[in-house]
């Protein structure tokens, strides 16, 4: 009986030693925090845009034909009156010759009819012909005069058609696209080249549906926008909204906006950044972007509780972004401390400690120890080197 009791006691001791040990306490993490304050924060919206010409024309011939020459190419600068392209003028010249021949025939017929009318008028004065015959001669003369005017108009039109075989630039500018190549047969009005006129430049950008009314108010109030080229971020330009699309793009659901930059030497097609400053409607709190995380579909931050040295998740209302800062319009009170680094490694109620002097208010920082004189600081080093 004693042996059985001894075995049971030993088994209980062994089973007790095999039990799961208690987990070690969670380490106290160091966190960087900032003390939030309320300020009047205006939202700045930024959109990507493109520098475009104020006027861009698609130039084509007024007549159809075979394109035989295009002396300009993509990116070439042209002057007013410069030749851009030529058509084969053979058929047009034949039509011009035919019109000139018709004009000569109408002129000869008119001269003959005028001579006949003069003779018949003399005969009528002498009483050799009737009044009816005289009226017929007058009608023939008016018909010959009308035919002569018609032939003159046709000859002039055919002459213009022959001149239309040469495409010239009406204004100075730069060729931005080429739509037809030599050897192609083009119809009247078919674009051959696209020409950007010298003069004002515009920046085109698109805005979402919820910002259209804001841009339209900027247009009505004539408020300038800030434009910076991506190739030269230090150079700031001003532009004023001229046009806002009445309908959204069916693919992107955004509205196209055109802002006038005025006369400038900016190269066409450059990418630009358009900034729209939205006036502050209320006081807000600015936080670094890294301080905000998502919890159950809502934006939240970790608030430090100094009484317990723990953190708690607090939902916040985000009003917008300004660079790397987030504008918080609700959920926080001035004076609270918010964790701004390592937010994804924390859990509710976790023990933390403030890291670095930046996380401690200036009033609570310990005073720095007095600096020892240079001679006193050097003395231990000299004694150590002598040992």
How are the SSEs placed, and which strands pair?
Blueprint: H1 2-17, E1 29-31, E2 33-35, E3 38-40, E4 43-53, E5 56-60, E6 65-69, E7 77-78, E8 83-87, H2 90-126, H3 131-163, E9 166-168, E10 173-178, E11 185-186, E12 191-197, E13 200-207, H4 212-220, E14 224-229, E15 232-244, E16 255-263, E17 271-278, E18 283-288, E19 293-295, E20 298-305, E21 310-315, E22 317-322, E23 325-330, E24 337-339, E25 352-354, H5 374-386
Parallel strand pairs: 1-25
Antiparallel strand pairs: 2-24, 3-18, 4-13, 4-17, 5-12, 6-8, 6-11, 7-10, 8-9, 10-12, 13-16, 14-15, 14-17, 15-16, 18-23, 19-20, 20-21, 20-24, 22-23
Helix pairs in contact: 2-3
Protein name: Efflux RND transporter periplasmic adaptor subunit
Region (Disordered): 356-387
Coiled coil: 96-154
Using the coordinates shown, work out and report the CATH topology of the domain at 30-39 and 282-360. Answer: conserved putative lor/sdh protein from methanococcus maripaludis s2 fold
Multimeric state of these chains?
A: single chain
Overall residue-averaged pLDDT value: 81
Biggest β-sheet strands, sense, barrel: 6 strands, antiparallel, barrel
Q: Please state the second-level CATH architecture of the domain at 30-39 and 282-360.
A: Beta Barrel
CATH class term of the domain at 30-39 and 282-360: Mainly Beta
